Amino acid sequence: MTIRVDAYIAGGIARGEIAGEGHLRDALDATTDLAIERALWQGPDDPAPRPIGPVAIPVDDIIVAVPDGDPSIPVHAVWHPIHLEAGPYLIDGEIPTMPGFDPPRHARRSWMFT
Fold this sequence. Notes:
The protein is 9% helix and 52% strand. The chain is mainly beta. The strands form two sheets. It has a five-stranded antiparallel beta sheet. A hairpin with a 7-residue loop joins strand 3 and strand 4. 11% of the residues are buried.
């Protein structure tokens, strides 16, 4: 089984599949290099992704990794909007938490929730 993934690094985006099953987080924690098969690469100036075959990206270089598919989320999750600035990327989305959890109140001082 494979996991579809989009890996965002400072120089661009690699899209493809990694071997394994389960959660992407487990795959990232288990290795130092993320081996992406049938990879497509899109640099910041590229108009469209282009095939590059297999590629290994150091996990420490990955700014954001996004799996394809439904995440396992608690049934009673409360969704909070987030805005992140990570490297050259601006990320807008929502984060699920358990009822009663307030992300701004529990954030580290260096984090900024907007």
